[in-house]
Amino acid sequence: MFQEERHIAILQYIKQHQRISVQDICDLYKVSRDTARLDVVTLEEQGLLIRTRGGAILPTLTKTTDSYENRLNNVTAEKKAIARLAASLITNGDYLMFDVSTTVQLAAEYISTQNHFAVTNSIDIASVLCKKENIRIHLLGGQLDVQNRYVTGAKTLEMLADYHVDKLFLGACGISKEGLTSQDESDAYLNREMIKRADQVIVLADHSKFSKRFFYKVCDLNHVDLLITDKAPEGELKQLFDENEIEVKIIESK
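Predicted structure:
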């Protein structure tokens, strides 16, 4: 077995068994302990695993995501379907709140109901809602994050305290047993406050967000009322969703 093939096999083994020891590598792939240690060091340098005493595990933190603009330019059919299903849950007269998320922005575009009050810190979602009739928009103030196209800061949190809504539509960077997590600290704090000010918390996320964990925690799973996704959670995550009585709506596959 070539080195590259062995590296792929090592990573596949860890995905199935959570960890691998140096001795496991020796026994499975018939190499010396020096070669096994070198494999672990090489894979760690590539950011593909983390060395532990006597072996290795996969990284548990996701450290990067695409920019908001890139994600908006690469929207999948699944995300569009998730957004349409989310918009279909809105009824006339609902008071709504929108997090900064490409899928949430699509949901705002698909709104066909009327007589809404809408709160958001996203300049793009505010722009989308401006084109619709009978929606009063409350754009939170504060410092503009130009790259991610949302307003943030102490003033944003202060203004948010004045509102309470029927439904919050929330995107998610990561959904794991630790709860919802975000790569951005200010976004995590703002989402946490939004959750406190909504009767129903609706998370929009495709299955690629499952079992991903980012640095900043937003909330525990028991704060989520409904998840709209493209595939059902499995294993431990499904069990946790059941324990926390989270309703899961899955889009119809085509």
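Summary: Residues 3-17 form the longest helix (15 residues).
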